[in-house]
Amino acid sequence: MTVQVKVQERWNMLIKTDSILLGDNPFFGVDHLSQERARKKALISQDFNNAINVIKFCYDMGVRGMVVSTHPNLKDLINKIQNNSSLTNKIDFYPILPGFSEYFNMVTQKGIVNSINEILSPAGFGNKIKILTKSGLGIVRKDLYQIFKVIIDVDLLQLQGTKVKTVFLHEIITDLAISFNAKNLLEIFKDHLADKHKAKAGLVTKNFPRLVDKLNEWNLEIPEIMTSFNKVGFQMNPNRKECENALNRYKGSVVAMSVLAAGYIKPKEAYEYILSQPQLGKCVIGISTIEHAKETFSLFLN
Amino acid sequence: MKIGIIGFGKMGVLHAGILNALDNVQISAIAEKERIITNYIKKIMPHVKIYDDANKMCSQKEIDVVYITTPVYSHFQIAMSCIQNDMNFFMEKPLTTNLDDTKKLCSELTKHDLIHSVGYNRRFVDTFVKAKDLMDNKILGDIYKVKASIYLSSIFSKIPSWRTKKTESGGGVLVDLGSHVIDLLIWYFGRIEEVSGETKSVYSGEVEDFAHMNIEFRNKIKGEFDTSWSIKGYRLPEINVEVFGSNGKLRVTEDFIETDLKNPVPQLDNIQMKISKQSLNTGVPFDLGGPEYAKEDLYMVNCVRNKKQSFVNVFEASKTQSVIQAMYDCAGKGSRKVEYVDQN
The complex's ipTM? Predict the structure, then answer.
């Protein structure tokens, strides 16, 4: 069997099992190859019409899932998708939260404690929190775990009324939990999602081998991990070889992201590598335009 | 190696997260006053000793190095405490809120044999490191001009923060973001001799949101430098350095290096090249917030282990502080010579 036939078979299998996921970064002007290119993209992608065309095209090609970051404009994109009759309730969402850049900027400007106060103020999330929690702000304010749960709840409000499959924890929080041995934080995340949102928990990491070993040491089952996998080892720490080896030590499903190394690798070469790794359960593809979508999908058509 | 962190805000958490994940390195003490944070630390890291008083931590002999990650206004006093207790230290940039305090730190440091480093972490970004290597190998021939900038979309209204109080921050965007680029330029081209230019506050009141400076290096290279944290379209801080020499031009950002040369050089396959960060990527032992932070922390740990002074030490960082002071002094008033702590 030739490499091309094997790659096509594997792609077809991933499409059939709803395992090809569309990433949302191109629709928000996020581009990890170049910030300069991202600025240009952001200027053309503000109204989401291009995004809807790309999502519809990908849906017609069999893509059923979408990875979304809890960006401040996410609700607008979700509304556009849900209001489009050919897409309403047809896309499964895989959010990554908390919306880190929003909180990160707030903490940079105001410090951690002032940011917490602002988040919990009536002008911040205070009014939303009243709807979400019975315990009241006083109790929330004193306990970082409670604040963590509230931030999850608030971020998920943007996805109300959609099908949420797995909720992924942002890499910064996951990786801090690894370093500080904070098993409890990940347990709270998993349990809170299961109890309150009836959703599966996933983790994003930039340190895949370390995370796998920690989960095994803690005997903590997390069904999905999203992490960078690509032919050049970009954002694969400590290196590509160790990440590939760690695939054998993880019992759950790995969602590969940065498969093109942020546009650095040519699609054919990139997907040949990704699709030759049988342990990778899902794959996130970043597509910015219809032309880009056609080019990508043509690789897998007979 | 045992490490103490002073200030468990954003930068303290980030450095602690990286350091605690490195082999044979452990966060053993944290100085932080906020109860909500210290209560959480006690829950997840019960072995870590919590201090209310940073000075007390600086005198603990079992700690090998202290990380100072508090707001700028407290840097001087804490760093002085480290020096007087013979404690190795890393401090976030910028050094201090004014040049007088920097001079006092340098003066005190000459009496102590310590390892010290400052958080000018762009020196650990792959593209900036590679660009230095190429320029040191003379691919541009004789360099005569440089244009540099750093922008971020961050401040579009007055924020209630120490960052916008001159006495607590030492200044606005020039000292906050701009200091990264000034440090890079000094690393690349040596000391800046003279500066002139303007600063402008639109949103932040006491401190500037925009700065534009003309600079002249001691080796006669001329330059322009522009910065703002109030420009739309910059989700992340973005540095752009364009260097012009007798053999052509080099442009470097966090993401890539571009060259456009007159004559070929052995270091590059073509005269027009684009070298992306992906091609320079090597992976780090533990990535949190970007590989440059891990490289910076690993470097500091190795400096302390091997008793080797950091190349981004306080004396080196004092050059940037001197240039910034001259920039503030000259703003709107003509040119100003830079007064260095050590004039040699």
Answer: 0.93
